[in-house]
């Protein structure tokens, strides 16, 4: 008979996801708990940790008294939702060196820049800021720019 595996979402203090995961791992090892199968820290979701376990009672056991643990979120995640966090995404970048873009977010928001290099494997573009008094090259995620002209 196959054991039930559920995905529980834990609310934690933002920025403390790794600390909470490490504390849970230590507690699992120290108490020899075999009903926890995985601990996932989704990079897209700040302040949340996903635990794959056999039941909510096991999650409560490993999180009891952990300093940055804020509570268990209502509901469960499906396997497909968890796989979307861990699957590798390919980013289609339609930019080429020489294109003029506007930076949409970050500290250089609103600045115009020229694409110097496209790093498709990382999903980033290297830009030369046009509105700078001196040559300034920055690397930003490709989804943080919008193309103005080719």
TrEMBL record:
<dbReference type="GO" id="GO:0003746">
    <property type="term" value="F:translation elongation factor activity"/>
</dbReference>
<dbReference type="InterPro" id="IPR014722">
    <property type="entry name" value="Rib_uL2_dom2"/>
</dbReference>
<dbReference type="InterPro" id="IPR005100">
    <property type="entry name" value="NGN-domain"/>
</dbReference>
<keyword id="KW-0804">Transcription</keyword>
<protein>
    <recommendedName>
        <fullName>Transcription elongation factor Spt5</fullName>
    </recommendedName>
</protein>
<dbReference type="InterPro" id="IPR036735">
    <property type="entry name" value="NGN_dom_sf"/>
</dbReference>
<keyword id="KW-0648">Protein biosynthesis</keyword>
<feature type="domain" description="KOW">
    <location>
        <begin position="94"/>
        <end position="121"/>
    </location>
</feature>
<dbReference type="GO" id="GO:0005840">
    <property type="term" value="C:ribosome"/>
</dbReference>
<dbReference type="InterPro" id="IPR006645">
    <property type="entry name" value="NGN-like_dom"/>
</dbReference>
<dbReference type="InterPro" id="IPR008991">
    <property type="entry name" value="Translation_prot_SH3-like_sf"/>
</dbReference>
<feature type="domain" description="NusG-like N-terminal">
    <location>
        <begin position="4"/>
        <end position="89"/>
    </location>
</feature>
<dbReference type="GO" id="GO:0003735">
    <property type="term" value="F:structural constituent of ribosome"/>
</dbReference>
<dbReference type="InterPro" id="IPR005825">
    <property type="entry name" value="Ribosomal_uL24_CS"/>
</dbReference>
<keyword id="KW-0805">Transcription regulation</keyword>
<dbReference type="GO" id="GO:0006355">
    <property type="term" value="P:regulation of DNA-templated transcription"/>
</dbReference>
<dbReference type="InterPro" id="IPR005824">
    <property type="entry name" value="KOW"/>
</dbReference>
<comment type="function">
    <text>Stimulates transcription elongation.</text>
</comment>
<dbReference type="Pfam" id="PF03439">
    <property type="entry name" value="Spt5-NGN"/>
</dbReference>
<comment type="similarity">
    <text>Belongs to the SPT5 family.</text>
</comment>
<dbReference type="InterPro" id="IPR011590">
    <property type="entry name" value="Spt5_arc"/>
</dbReference>
<dbReference type="Pfam" id="PF00467">
    <property type="entry name" value="KOW"/>
</dbReference>
<comment type="subunit">
    <text>Heterodimer composed of Spt4 and Spt5. Interacts with RNA polymerase (RNAP).</text>
</comment>
<keyword id="KW-0251">Elongation factor</keyword>
<dbReference type="GO" id="GO:0006354">
    <property type="term" value="P:DNA-templated transcription elongation"/>
</dbReference>
<comment type="similarity">
    <text>Belongs to the archaeal Spt5 family.</text>
</comment>
């Amino acid at each position: 008979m196959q054991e039930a595996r559920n995905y529980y979402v834990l609310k934690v203090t933002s920025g403390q996801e790794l600390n909470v995961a490490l504390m849970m791992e230590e507690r699992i090892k120290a108490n020899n708990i075999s009903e926890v199968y995985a601990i996932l820290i989704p990079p897209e979701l700040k302040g949340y940790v996903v635990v794959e376990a056999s039941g909510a009672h096991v999650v409560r056991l490993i999180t009891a008294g952990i300093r940055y643990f804020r509570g268990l979120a209502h509901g469960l995640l499906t396997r497909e939702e968890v796989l979307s966090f861990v699957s590798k995404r390919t980013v289609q970048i339609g930019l080429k060196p020489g294109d003029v873009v506007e930076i949409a977010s970050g500290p250089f928001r609103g600045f115009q820049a020229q694409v110097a290099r496209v790093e498709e494997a990382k999903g980033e573009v290297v830009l030369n800021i046009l509105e700078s008094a001196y040559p300034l090259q920055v690397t930003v995620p490709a989804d943080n720019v919008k193309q103005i002209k080719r």
